[in-house]
Design a protein that fits this description.
Strand order of the largest sheet: 14-17-18-13-12-20-21
CATH architecture of the largest domain: 3-Layer(aba) Sandwich
Strand content: 15-25%
Number of strands: 24
CATH topology of the largest domain: Aldehyde Dehydrogenase, Chain A, domain 1
């Protein structure tokens, strides 16, 4: 991948792109049954990239039927794990060969910097898919501990048809977290990408069939949540539904499961992660860099974003000065310029939502220390300056609600018990971090924080081998690691009496 290439290179490359715009069902591209399309708008400049098929319940039904036929036929579901591995590895090789194309599609579609899509999103996506391909023929079944006249076989079988609904902040990466374990385990998948980001999902499905994935095993239906997404959640022939997105929408999928066939649901939802800086932080400069990264990376459009900065009152001012010095270097710019570290918000609606939270923060009495305004308005794109609030009431909206933008709320605390209390005072429990020299304090705080992932003296430092998911209203079920395979398989016990 060519992260070092110039702005001019990527602009020229854009002109050569061929967008896939139809739904991908049963191994081929097809228009929406209704004939409807919607505009795929680039947040870089507000321009329309393409008109994409607007799938709805009829298209979801076609895709589910295709997935079911493929599953029952057994061309994938009953294929030996080692043979599934070979196909998936060939798919990874094709994705790697088209990595620059996919990175550019991602940047154009959602506004994230090309340096991130080439340097982070694509490499991590490829690693995820390759890891699950390599893992699937190393997952063993079990034998129950019985007497000599009994044999209890405990086998793991693919669940069947999996519906996957993914967000727009990391379209490829979040898709790989679902597709890797689901396909490796032998399931068929119907993927519903966010309406803001359909382009890479359609392209990787085409490449999957080219790699040898049987028709119908991987289908993509672009469309809106209230139509295509709801239809997938309500469909009576979907066996499992996996979702990453907001807590509000996650609750809809729980309702859809209850109203339909009690399909298994796994949710990775919102977050309001506390980033705790103790007075004995081992390196204030490094912690400041990490804290800035934790909220401003990907324009703050990250479910684990360290949006609540909890700092010991004795060092708060010194720490904020360091953090803001880092943030000053993170001004939004053209996402196609490899020098740009902050890109555009995904669409106008999200930009307006974030700006609304900034106004709410001011109205609630928080002190605006930097940023707080739209940037590059003349470009037609949707950019917001890195924004830092101080003296934030822990009960304020900007400290309680997921903003999903580059807005940091700074809150003081007096001791570790105070930090833990504030850190847990939210409906969410996705991630957290604590910085301290004291291993006892670190372990006490990490154990007390109600979060699925806690970093000590770091932020976002893990990989595919560690499970990812939340507590409380951040959802349940885990992506990544071998634990993720459990979501896409069912255990069967076969009890044999030896006579």
């Amino acid at each position: 991948m060519a992260a070092a290439l110039t702005l001019e290179h990527w602009q020229a490359r854009k002109a050569t792109l061929d967008y896939r715009t139809q739904a991908f069902i049963d191994g081929r591209f097809v228009p929406a049954r209704s004939g409807k399309t919607f505009d795929c708008v680039s947040p870089i400049d507000g321009s329309v990239l393409a008109q994409v098929a607007e799938g709805d319940a009829a298209d979801i039904d076609l895709a589910v039927k295709s997935a079911r036929r493929a599953f029952e036929a057994g061309s994938w579901s009953r294929l030996a794990p080692a043979k599934r591995k070979r196909v998936l590895l060939k798919w990874v090789a094709l994705l790697r060969a088209h990595a620059d194309e996919l990175a550019l599609l991602e940047t154009l579609d959602v506004g994230k910097p090309i340096r991130d899509t080439t340097g982070v999103d694509l490499p991590v996506t490829l690693n995820c898919l390759q890891w699950y391909a390599e893992a699937i023929d190393k997952v063993y079944d079990e034998i129950a501990p019985t007497g000599p006249d009994q044999l209890g076989l405990i086998t793991r079988e693919p669940v069947g048809v999996v519906g996957a609904v993914v967000p727009w902040n990391f379209p490829l990466l979040m898709s790989s977290w679902k597709l890797g374990p689901a396909l490796a385990a032998g399931n068929s998948v119907v993927l519903k990408p966010a309406e803001q980001s359909p382009l890479t999902a359609l392209r990787i499905a085409e490449l999957a069939v080219e790699a040898g994935l049987p028709d119908g095993v991987f289908n993509v239906v672009p469309g809106f949540g209230e139509t295509a997404g709801a239809a997938l959640g309500l469909h009576m022939d979907v066996d499992a539904l996996t979702f990453t997105g907001s807590t509000q929408v996650g609750k809809y999928f729980l309702e859809y499961a209850g109203r339909s066939n009690m399909k298994a649901v796994s949710l990775e939802c919102g977050g309001k992660s506390p980033h705790i800086i103790m007075a004995d932080c081992p390196d204030l400069d490094l912690a400041a860099k990490k804290a800035a990264f934790a909220i401003f990376y990907n324009q703050g459009e990250v479910c684990t974003a360290g949006s609540r900065l909890l700092v010991d009152a004795s060092i708060k001012e010194a720490f904020l000065e360091r953090l803001m010095a880092v943030a000053q270097r993170l001004r939004p710019g053209n996402p196609l310029d490899p020098k740009t570290a902050m890109g555009a918000m995904v669409d106008r609606g999200q930009m307006d939502r974030v700006l609304g939270y900034i106004e709410a923060g001011k109205a609630e009495g928080a002190t605006l220390r930097m940023g707080g305004t739209r940037a590059h308005e003349a470009s037609g794109g949707y950019y917001i300056e890195p924004t830092v609030f101080d003296n934030v009431d822990p009960k304020a909206r900007i400290a309680q609600e997921e903003i999903f933008g580059p807005v940091l709320s700074t809150i003081s605390f007096t001791d570790e018990d105070d930090a833990i209390r504030i850190g847990n005072d939210t409906i969410y429990g996705l991630a957290a971090a604590v910085w301290t020299r004291d291993i006892n304090k670190a372990l006490k705080t990490a154990k007390a924080l109600r979060a699925g992932l806690v970093w000590v003296n770091g932020w976002d430092e893990d990989d595919i081998t560690a499970p990812f998911g939340g507590f409380k209203q951040s959802g349940f079920g885990r992506d990544r690691s071998l634990h993720a395979i459990a979501k896409y398989t069912q255990l069967k016990t076969t009890w044999i009496t030896i006579r």
